[in-house]
Amino acid sequence: MIERPKRAVTRFFVPLIDVLILLFCIFLLMPFTQVPTEELLINPPDSDQQRKKDAEELPKDVQTLQRELEKARRELSQLKMEKGNLSDRLSVKVLEIDPRNGNLYYLQDRTRVMVDNQLAADTIIRSHTNQAKLAGKEPFFLLLFPREATGFPEQSQIDTYSKWFQEVQYQFDKPFR
Q: Which among 2, 70, 78, 123 is least buried, having the fewest CB atoms inside 10 angstroms?
């Protein structure tokens, strides 16, 4: 049978441990009872000075508000027109990379035209740029990687192609990123 402790010190420490455990649990639950600081940053408490300041910044005249609204609408429509449709703004020339050897070519009248040096690349850049300017568009070159994983083009070939087209807008289309 369990006997009561004979010393007074033990009688004091047993309830003290219970109280300490209770206080520790309260300490652990304290963060759940506080308002998060993020909420305070988003919705700071209103003060009289803040309300007065906001009231002073707002225009009191309806006509002023209408002018500002019309100005914002014009800016929005201008930005939409500048952005436009890419197909209306760009003239795209597609060049492909041969999956067997990594050489660059494009199709003209269903025949392959190889781009195997800087001179050939400059020729295609110049002719496509002239065609694009006549149509009132910007020239853009899209270099298509092979659609099957063959190991081509090698990194040295990619670097060479990048060097050839560095003066114009171009992009590689890599299906296996």
A: 2
- Are the C-beta atoms of 106 and 97 separated by less than 8 Å? no
Q: What is the pTM of this model?
A: 0.54
Q: Any idea which architecture 86-173 has in CATH?
A: 2-Layer Sandwich (3.30)
- Of 140, 133, 135, nearest to 165 by C-alpha is 140
In single-letter form, the type of residue at position 8 comes to: A
Give the angle subtended at the CA of 165 by the CAs of 161 and 117, to the nearest 5°.
55
Q: What is the mean pLDDT of the chain?
A: 84
Which tokens hold the place of 159? Answer: 């670097």
Which tokens is 64 given? Answer: 């002023």
| The pLDDT of residue 115 | 95
Of 150, 160, 177, the residue nearest 95 (C-alpha): 160
d(CA 159, CA 164): 9
> 146 and 100 in contact (C-beta within 8 Å)?
no
CB contact set of 115 (below 8 Å; sequence gap of 6+): 95, 103, 104, 105, 106, 121, 124, 164
- Checking if the pLDDT of 7 tops 70, the result is no
Question: What is the domain partition of the chain in residue ranges?
Answer: 8-39, 86-173
Beta-carbon contacts of 113 under 8 Å, excluding residues fewer than 6 positions away, are 105, 106, 107, 124
